[in-house]
Amino acid sequence: MTSFPLSRRLVSEALGTGLLVTAVVGSGIMAHRLTTDIALALLANTLPTGAILVVLIIVLGPISGAHFNPVVSLVFTLRRELTAMSALGYIVAQTLGGIAGTLLAHAMFELPLLQASTTIRSGGAQWLAEVTATFGLVFAILAGLRFRADAVSWLVGLYITAAYWFTASTSFANPAVAIARSLTNTFAGIRPVDLPGFIVAEILGAVLALMLANWLLMEVRNPQTLSETEAIP
Amino acid sequence: MTSFPLSRRLVSEALGTGLLVTAVVGSGIMAHRLTTDIALALLANTLPTGAILVVLIIVLGPISGAHFNPVVSLVFTLRRELTAMSALGYIVAQTLGGIAGTLLAHAMFELPLLQASTTIRSGGAQWLAEVTATFGLVFAILAGLRFRADAVSWLVGLYITAAYWFTASTSFANPAVAIARSLTNTFAGIRPVDLPGFIVAEILGAVLALMLANWLLMEVRNPQTLSETEAIP
Amino acid sequence: MTSFPLSRRLVSEALGTGLLVTAVVGSGIMAHRLTTDIALALLANTLPTGAILVVLIIVLGPISGAHFNPVVSLVFTLRRELTAMSALGYIVAQTLGGIAGTLLAHAMFELPLLQASTTIRSGGAQWLAEVTATFGLVFAILAGLRFRADAVSWLVGLYITAAYWFTASTSFANPAVAIARSLTNTFAGIRPVDLPGFIVAEILGAVLALMLANWLLMEVRNPQTLSETEAIP
Amino acid sequence: MTSFPLSRRLVSEALGTGLLVTAVVGSGIMAHRLTTDIALALLANTLPTGAILVVLIIVLGPISGAHFNPVVSLVFTLRRELTAMSALGYIVAQTLGGIAGTLLAHAMFELPLLQASTTIRSGGAQWLAEVTATFGLVFAILAGLRFRADAVSWLVGLYITAAYWFTASTSFANPAVAIARSLTNTFAGIRPVDLPGFIVAEILGAVLALMLANWLLMEVRNPQTLSETEAIP
């Protein structure tokens, strides 16, 4: 929890989620316009997303924690590090900021501001991918905070860079970003009707990560005794 | 503000802006010669630009602050961290260094040294892109200096890597670099007649970032009181 | 050696190796589906692998050491920093985790869960490549632990990013990952019958690296005397 | 200057230069086999080279300084930080190590071990590119050592990643690597007859960088007085 007043924390969450969505949607549009090779377009969508995440988390993290993601705020609420009221504010700010990010990308690329995506992303395999993606993201954040808090920005940026490719859904892993991406009928879009499946999967992945982290990262009570049992005689 | 004499600071600004422009223009020429895929060419333009920014800011930052950008010098002048006279010197050094960088790239690639770009980059969407690009750059610098001064080189390199793709203008975000790029009729060029629109947009983005930073990053007076109100009862 | 109980260390090794394999196999499938250019597919396989390695080593290293690789566990056993019993547990956990990682990738991409690879990877040149790849990996880890323990995650991620390209085998360098990759008939696969040659080569490379490191990294007894002899008169 | 005995320092230089050349030549072969797009091949040559440089400098730097480059050893000799005798040993070790690196790459990719390149790299523009490339490399090293010694590995890796693209010669910037690359008739080769021009240009670039660094990085005697003159009244 930071010491900044809530008003500025909410602006930080809206600004960060907004720029993140602008990066995701905007780089998708740019890439898709410049090449017919879909792998290259995805690469040109991946690298800016990973890069901007590192930047946004470093510069806004000290203000609001740089969640930019409702399931991350949910996890911190379950850990009692955020009040329910603040979490609600965070989630609203993230969602509104994300939508503004889509509008900004559309404006910069001279596209209709309001769109609805027609890209189908649904079915069990996609949902499994979102569970996996969000599980890994939230676990990386929680373990990173435990062991190397100064490196969390890099962990998130690198994790998303990887997960774009190894999850079949290209790793949305974020309900606010998913909602914002449902409003663009471009490379990074998702049909509005497919949102509920994604969001449920993302919440599930986050809760699984929290449960694993609670056990795996638990403080060790008698470290010396334990390490002695391991010593080579 | 550094303790190096102004003469060396000006050489540092000229050298840094020059090598930055050589990287932008040179990698654009190289990429465009080697492929017909424009997205791949832009990627091969993006990565060297981001990489050289990290290097130049680390090695020249301690000498001159590594602005390499008139709007960054403007912002530090408005913050009263640079005198108007020094700022003027910085901007002249950046502009001359940038132009020399274009000439060096042309010489290395056996192109006519003096050229004028014919690449049209104009209109409201492009200007909005430049406002956005420069806003994000300047905000990242100011927030980075506030929270993680040792990481500013990475912030700038990663931010530009992302902004190349998510802004429709490929993120010039720098009047000195824009002027230098108006003198090359290659991949990275911009028509001289389009310069004023870009420069005005860049100044606007920078000033907006400064205004937001002044409020968002302001010191918190009673941090303990604030964090108590957030505590879970 | 960490102070975490063995049960959690084994889960950490299984989880880390599993996600590593999911990243390798999953990004290979995604890349191969999206492009016909094999170099681009390999690049889209390389970057996620390197990125996830940095993440996994940072977040799981404090728990289990983040070996994720039987030959790394072997080397630490030979250095007497891991008991033979723990090493056995590690290797079993890595292998089972790796196989689970392949299954997860198949499930996410709607492929048959159980497959056997038909990709031939055999012969002296391939084995030399695996000796080289594993030698470099293990040497980087041992020297990194000696000089910059905080950077080992980056060393491994960057080393594998490079070795994917400069070794003719694309640098498996890991028997548990090789076994897991023998169970997928996709981009990243290897025929089960080719496993023994790879595994022997990987063990050989690891032992060579350990021998070199024992000599090259050995503590210097009288550093001052030695550096005096080097001083310019 | 390190405290390691000269024998180990020479092995470190040979090993590091060897693996660097294996990375350059091997990734060039791999890339050229997998794609017909030359820009993509160069990208797949660039990223492994940059990545392995970071690794090699971190793990071998504490032993030998991680020059891997005769002109770097020359510069440290001119700065009287290395004796002429040690420098001679370094340069021999770098050259022999580099040649061994080419042979290893050929062996891994099942190519004739001994080859002579037929790739023409000559003329004033190429030499200017090599002067520029080596100037930037050596200046980055010297300024990095002065201001952020812990980051030199990243500076070199990122600088070379950029210079591959912005110099018309793809930035050899290293006589030992150039000699080793003259012995491979693959993507990364250079005709033996073109070596002298490259080597002279590289020495010139290095000496220019040393001269600039001697002035630009010189200690500031009365920093307080200077910074007072800059203060806003």
From TrEMBL, chains A, B, C, D:
It is a multi-pass membrane protein. It is found in: Membrane. The chain crosses the membrane at residues 12-31, 51-76, 88-107, 127-145, 152-177, 197-217. Its main location: membrane. This is Glycerol uptake facilitator (Major Intrinsic Protein Family). GO terms for molecular function: channel activity. It comes from Rhizobium hainanense. The keyword Transport applies. Belongs to the MIP/aquaporin (TC 1.A.8) family. Keywords: Membrane, Transmembrane, Transmembrane helix, Transport. One of its GO terms (cellular component) is membrane. It comes from the Bacteria. The keyword Transmembrane applies.
